[in-house]
Amino acid sequence: MNTEGVSLWQALGRNRKDRPALAETLGADLAIVGGGFSGLSTALHAAEKGLSVVVLEAETIAFGASGRNAGFVVPNFAKVDPDDLIARLGAERGERLIDFAAGSADLVFDLIRRHAIACEAEQNGWIQPAHSIAAFEKTKSRAGQWASRGRPAVVLDRHAMRFITGVKEYMGGWMDQSGGVLNPVEYARGLADAAEAAGARVFENSPVRSINRSKDSWTLATQHGALRAGKVVVATNAYGGALNSKLARTYFPLRVFQIATQPLPADIRERLLPGGQCVSDTRRNLFTFRFDAANRLISGGMHILGPGAEARVPRRIHRRLARHLDLKDIPPLEYSWSGTAAVEPDFLPHLVDLGPGLIAGFACNGRGIAMTTAMGKVLAEWACGADARDLPIPFGPPAPIPFHPLLRHAPNMLLFWSMLRDRLDARSAA
Ligand SMILES: Cc1cc2nc3c(=O)[nH]c(=O)nc-3n(C[C@H](O)[C@H](O)[C@H](O)COP(=O)(O)OP(=O)(O)OC[C@H]3O[C@@H](n4cnc5c(N)ncnc54)[C@H](O)[C@@H]3O)c2cc1C
């Protein structure tokens, strides 16, 4: 049973097009499992390079995290800064992955412009305010690391942060001006349309039940059809558990809740975030907000395990929104939903080698709109013959997380600890 509900974007989406289920036997150069940003960006880029491409989506386009996120376009990694990457991967591989991330938001907005995707997109910046003095120092260093690589990263002092966000409590922070906002469902639908216009075929309601090797190709079986392809990209993110249980043990499935209020009155709307950017602060228990095109306030958060989360967590996020934004008369909740993000133990994108010509891509880690789009471009290069070891994203065999059945809920279980540490930080900043 789907307990994740229907997102604001799925409920209000305008450009929905019915696509058939696979009901025949087809052949293609490239088969893609999953119709989220990862699969659709791969399809678009591979079809543009002249490959014959088929996408098989179990439900409908943007059913998974791609239709349930907040629409923040963020061109960097949560928790891993450029200097950390160089220390972990060495200068050459580190800089390649940094370049991959750095250009990822520009790629999203370029695709939107190039394919005229109507998705309420604005490249107006992603803002990370600091909730403590120590966090402000960290954001200054982070901004410096990106700026030294030519990225449009600017440090904002306390006054500038207050002016831009309308929120008093922050110590300062930084902004990457290449980030921005969009309507994720319309973006995904636009990618699907663009992929089809480039020659790809997209099937919905076609869950892949098995992927088997026969001679020099792969056969993907669905209930009423089959697809034979030389290469296969598995782009199922946290929704593909049943297809490959080994793959499902390589990431933490992080369930995240989102809410949208009724639209805000104009006078309050003008005080908060007049530039319409998106905000994710430095708390371990992340606080985020943005507005949609109708001036609904959108926020999200993780949940603490336990019964009744679907009703309890949205109310808690709503109260938190009112508290942090100093909104005594916050409009009532209009939409609440959740989604699941695949989080890698090292918070980096990964390409997983599942066999000759069979690869899985993970670039989510909770900040996936820009990263999965950029990963799709890289996967299209692989589909056209590039050696996976030469790509900017780390590539290797599946690396199952030890004690996964026990640890899979660790990020949610650690939330109490994160909240406690945030509170201590805030006390030392006061
Ligand atoms: C609540 C929430 C908020 C988020 N907010 C943001 C944000 O603001 N900014 C940001 O950058 N990132 C955000 N993210 C992360 C971002 O949404 C994801 O990184 C991104 O959508 C992942 O895209 P994907 O294509 O890899 O996976 P998904 O969009 O999850 O797509 C996987 C697809 O595979 C399909 N599938 C699974 N199994 C099969 C099968 N056997 N056969 C066929 N199809 C199958 C599923 O139905 C699904 O449609 C958020 C995530 C969540 C959950």
Protein structure class: alpha/beta
**Oligomeric status:** single chain
Strand content: 15-25%
Q: What is the general shape?
A: globular
Major β-sheet profile: 9 strands, mixed
Helix content: 25-40%
Mean pLDDT, rounded to whole units? 93
Strand count: 19
Write down the Rg: 21 Å
Number of helices: 15
Which ligands occur here? flavin-adenine dinucleotide
Stretches where pLDDT falls below 50 for ≥5 residues?
none
Separation of the first and last Cα atoms: 46 Å
So what's the CATH class of the domain at 8-69 and 185-250 and 345-402? Alpha Beta
Give the full name of the CATH homologous superfamily of the domain at 8-69 and 185-250 and 345-402: FAD/NAD(P)-binding domain
CATH topology of the domain at 8-69 and 185-250 and 345-402: FAD/NAD(P)-binding domain
By CATH, the architecture of the domain at 8-69 and 185-250 and 345-402 is named 3-Layer(bba) Sandwich
Give the helices and strands, then pairings.
Layout: H1 8-12, E1 25-33, H2 37-48, E2 53-56, E3 72-73, H3 82-89, H4 91-102, H5 104-114, E4 126-129, H6 133-147, E5 153-156, H7 158-165, E6 173-176, E7 180-181, H8 184-197, E8 201-203, E9 210-214, E10 217-221, E11 226-234, H9 245-248, E12 252-263, H10 266-271, E13 278-280, E14 288-291, E15 296-302, H11 309-324, E16 333-343, E17 350-355, E18 358-362, H12 369-383, E19 395-396, H13 404-407, H14 410-413, H15 415-429
Parallel strand pairs: 1-2, 1-11, 2-8, 4-13, 11-18, 17-19
Antiparallel strand pairs: 3-7, 4-6, 5-6, 9-10, 10-11, 12-15, 12-16, 13-14, 14-15, 17-18
Helix pairs in contact: 2-8, 2-12, 3-4, 5-12
Bound molecules: flavin-adenine dinucleotide.
